[in-house]
Amino acid sequence: MEKVDVIIVGGGLAGLSCAYELADSGMTVLALERGDFSGSKNVTGGRIYLRPILPYLPGIWKEAPLERHVTKEVFTAMGKTNSTTFEFYSDRFNQTPYPSYTILRAKFDRWFADLVTEKGGFVIPQKTVDDLIIEDGKVIGVKSGDEEIGADCVVAADGILSFLAEKAGLRKPFQPQHFALGFKEVIRLDSKTIEDRFRLGEDEGAAQLFFGSLTQGMMGGGFLYTNKDSLSLGLVVGLHSLNLKEPREEVYKLLDTFKERPEIRNLVRGGEVIEYSAHLVAEGGIHQMPKPYTDGILLVGDAAGLGLNMLFTVRGMEYAMVSGILAGRTIKKARGRNDFSASSLAEYEKLLNDSFILKEMKTFQNTLSILENKRLFTKYPQVISDLFENVMWVDENPKEAIYKTKMAELKKEFLNFETLKDWLLFRKI
Amino acid sequence: MKITEKLALDAFKNDKETHILLDHKICHTCKERFCIYACPANLYSLNEKGEMVVEFAGCLECGTCMIACIYGSVKWKYPRSEYGVQYRFG
């Protein structure tokens, strides 16, 4: 069996970041990617926040093929036939280094893989890893088809379904409660039209989230991100609520229904759909995190369950990149000790705990219980939109006093035990 | 736009053998058919004999069916090296 120092399974953000950290360390590092190229199996909404990553990976961003820096945050609460939108802009979003960018992974990861190669790492595409080689309880290599490759340390960067974490005995069985399905269309639209339609300056971007009637009572929401010359439009739906939905309807149809809404139709008009993709999103937060190491193996990124729904945004790519770097640092130290046992690799967990990743996952550990509240996706967006509709509505009847009548309605809707409970729950984040 | 038209926009390299296997004994007793409603590519359907079938060729490789099927009928793995969907935008 051929042997290298480190095998990284998965050439996405976590795996590539780990490979980048190790590429000039003198160790032989192999990153095995199952797609035709890095990024070809990856999907994001999506938007990446740069500031959390910069302290760990400062030098690479100037040439990075990112899309637009986000200057505008838009939230839309959707009723059945109406909607309320809140739009937020800040000069701080428009100052370098820009805090977040929209991103297309097939472009970005491919570029990042080239960077790893330039630095001395090896990224091998079209290599699906089928199994771990385990000897006396220690991971000593991987199997891909008929091939076996040995390594002092294996890094499982094989994504949210991480079969390697399962084979290493680290991952808990899958539960629908801990996952959401994200699926989207990429819609080509020229950059001038995007900037005019979304009222953006050159290279500026918008991030829009939708919640309410579009998910038909299910946990989840919609998203719309402006790329350079395309839009990413999609939905995220919790698998548990998808399984429970009545009446039954194929989930893919929801995106078409959403797209027909005037709020969306007028934004995507004239655009050409150029890709349709789907991916799972981790919703379980810290509760579904496996132990991220054992003898001879480390888990990074989605494979380590590092994803977080923070309600106003979903995080994962920053966690992937920084956990990859931290795994790389751990491996360098373990090399110094020439010890890749669990006790030596345990340092990785400490680094994760001390980083923003686990701190955020602890702070937002209760978001799942908030998201399980159906009223968030049904009642509240509808009530808010109906209120504004009634305020704005003028017809042949004399208009009633706004404060008196609407306050009475609002009191009825919001001054009750259920809303009090929801409010108390909200205070947990 | 039909779902088959959407899938036709994606680049696929299809293997001869499937990477999704169903346990028909389990499917036979299933009433809910979670897979049909959860698959974003609409690849699950009942054939004329009333048996569950899955068309692996348009698979977006999300793994949703495997997790949505709480009865454990869906045996799902990644397509072999060189096969499956190849996203150009992602």
List the helices and strands and how they pair.
The complex is a heterodimer of chains A (429) and B (90).
Chain A: E1 2-9, H1 13-22, E2 29-32, E3 47-49, E4 69-78, E5 83-89, E6 100-102, H2 105-119, E7 122-124, E8 131-135, E9 138-144, E10 147-156, H3 163-167, E11 179-188, H4 191-197, E12 204-212, E13 220-226, E14 230-238, H5 239-244, H6 252-260, H7 262-268, E15 272-282, E16 293-294, E17 297-299, E18 308-309, E19 314-315, H8 317-337, H9 342-345, H10 347-354, H11 356-363, H12 367-371, H13 379-392, H14 402-414, H15 417-426
Parallel strand pairs in A: 1-2, 1-10, 2-7, 4-12, 10-17
Antiparallel strand pairs in A: 3-6, 4-5, 8-9, 9-10, 11-14, 11-15, 12-13, 13-14, 16-17, 18-19
Helix pairs in contact in A: 1-2, 1-8, 8-10, 13-14
Chain B: H1 3-7, E1 11-13, E2 20-22, H2 24-29, H3 34-38, E3 44-46, E4 52-54, H4 64-68, E5 74-76, E6 84-86
What would you say this structure looks like, in words?
The complex is a heterodimer of chains A (429) and B (90). Chain A has 429 residues and is an alpha/beta fold. Chain A folds into three domains: 2-67 and 103-171 and 290-354, FAD/NAD(P)-binding domain (3-Layer(bba) Sandwich); 177-282, 2-Layer Sandwich (D-Amino Acid Oxidase, Chain A, domain 2), CATH 3.30.9; 370-426. Helices cover 33% and strands 27% of the residues of chain A. Chain A has helices at residues 13-22, 105-119, 163-167, 191-197, 239-244, 252-260, 262-268, 317-337, 342-345, 347-354, 356-363, 367-371, 379-392, 402-414, 417-426; strands at 2-9, 29-32, 47-49, 69-78, 83-89, 100-102, 122-124, 131-135, 138-144, 147-156, 179-188, 204-212, 220-226, 230-238, 272-282, 293-294, 297-299, 308-309, 314-315. In chain A, α1 links the parallel β1 (2-9) and β2. In chain A, α1 (13-22) packs parallel to α2, α1 packs parallel to α8 and α8 packs antiparallel against α10. Chain A is elongated, with a radius of gyration of 23 Å. Chain B starts with a helix and ends with a strand. Chain B has 90 residues and is an alpha+beta fold. In chain B, the strands form three sheets. A two-stranded antiparallel sheet of chain B has the order 1-6. The model of chain B has no long low-confidence stretch (mean pLDDT 97). In chain B, β3 (44-46) and β4 (52-54) form a beta hairpin. Chain B has helices at 3-7, 24-29, 34-38, 64-68, and strands at 11-13, 20-22, 44-46, 52-54, 74-76, 84-86. The interface between A and B is large, with 50 and 38 residues.
